[in-house]
Design a protein that fits this description.
The chain is of the alpha+beta class and 98 residues long. Helix content is 30%, strand content 32%. The protein has a 5-stranded mixed beta sheet with strand order 1-2-3-4-5.
């Protein structure tokens, strides 16, 4: 499945941004605390790894935070590493310390 065909959804009931690729669920779990979006864990099964899916999940979370005017608390190690590689994303929302 190409990047253009993947649709990431926000599943509030499960507390995650998610996408299913080739029958495998990839997710970025979160919780909201008032005006904070706490990003907790990114999980991408090995079978679909190394195709930029985790980055797409992080981008979706940051777009949501921007749209909802939420600050982001990046508890997830992947998201923190992703932010280091994409500092422009850190400027669209407020990043709170852990």
């Amino acid at each position: 499945m190409s990047h253009d065909e993947r649709v990431i959804t926000r599943n509030d009931a499960a507390g995650r941004f998610e996408v299913t690729v080739e029958g495998h669920l990839a997710e970025l779990t979160f919780r909201r605390d008032d005006n904070r979006l706490i990003l907790e864990h990114t999980g991408v099964p090995e079978a679909i790894g190394h195709h930029g899916i985790a980055a797409e999940l992080a981008e979706a979370a940051f777009r949501f935070a921007e749209d909802e005017n939420l600050s982001v608390v990046p508890r997830c190690p992947y998201v923190r590493a992703w932010l280091d590689k994409h500092p422009e994303q850190a400027h669209i929302v407020t990043i709170e310390p852990l």
